[in-house]
Amino acid sequence: MIVAPFWVSIAFLAPRALAEAVSATSTTSTAATPSCTASLIDSLCSYPEPNGNFAVAEDSVASCWDYCNNNPPCDFIIFNAGNPTLGTGTCWLYPGETFDASKGTKCSTPNLSVYNKPVCSGGSATTTSGACAATATPSAIASVCGYPMPGDCFENCYASSGATNCLSICAEADSCSYAVFNPHNDGNSQYADGTCWVYPNGTYNAKDSTTCKGGPEQYVYKNVCPKPSSKAKSTSSSSSVLSSSTGTAEASSSSTTGAAPGSTTSSKNTAPTGLSLTNPLPPRCGNFDVAGLIMISL
């Protein structure tokens, strides 16, 4: 039978509970929404529709502009009005394409509004642009089939929303020489859902791919935003730790509180300074030391 005072259990559990609470709240952040505008460049009655990956319902033209801004590359958009009274409709995106007026037809009552690339201000950077601006406009160095996956796919294979996101994953990785995006969507578009393979080192070797029987099934991208070398990163990290003394409370102390007579304990509290847990256990209770309060009997 194990007998322990209730306050001893609370004392052992409290630091962990408080640390988890701090961790949960400290990672929460709110990003402002950018304000976008776009110019009407044409009004049409028909235009070739994009594949299903790039037609989304929106509650307004402004929402369509935001969608274009958040899903680069996007040089123009078409808003297909659904309910003129409510202003709702369908937003058509054509990633990697430019508007071709010759493909459209005009009429007296057009329902398709063509807008140029939105100009946005305020808020945060485009969510899918990743580590640097260059990832927002991916340019494949090869379009192939049958290229082998990385040696350690458990660590280097990711679900991805498109080539832009895949290039961002590569740029944000600790080590990435190049990446291969494998589309898994209608039309095998490099701008819709698929998987991203990251290659930590080496260079792309075209001889490792196979001949495509139809269209390309893989897109290869060079890392346009490589991180500093491991040595430089390690030096920078060490400097940051040494110079950062305001975010954590590091206190080394020698104390016999809560320990058996004659023993000495040394600890570092790396929790935020707002959670200073000094003497979490009472030093004594009546005539017994803390160590004597926990009684184990068989």
Structure description:
Keywords: Signal. This is Apple domain-containing protein. By secondary structure, the chain is an alpha+beta fold. Among the domains are: 87 residues, 3-Layer(bba) Sandwich (Hepatocyte Growth Factor), CATH 3.50.4; 81 residues. 20% of the residues lie in helices and 22% in strands. The protein contains 5 helices and 16 strands. The chain has a 5-stranded antiparallel beta sheet, covered by helices on one side. A 5-stranded antiparallel beta sheet has the order 9-13-11-12-10. It is elongated.
CATH topology of one domain: Hepatocyte Growth Factor
Give the mean pLDDT: 74
Second-tier CATH architecture of one domain? 3-Layer(bba) Sandwich
Computed CA radius of gyration, to the nearest angstrom: 29 Å
Q: What is the H/E order?
A: EHEEEHEEEEEHEHEEEHEEE
| C-alpha termini separation | 6 Å
Read across the widest sheet, the strand sequence of neighbours is 3-7-5-6-4
- Approximate shape: elongated
Main sheet: strands, sense, barrel: 5 strands, antiparallel
Low-confidence stretches: 1-31, 124-130, 240-298
Total number of β-strand segments? 16
Protein name: Apple domain-containing protein
Keywords: Signal
Organism: Penicillium chermesinum
Q: What's a concise summary of this model?
A:
By secondary structure, the chain is α+β, with helices and mostly antiparallel strands.
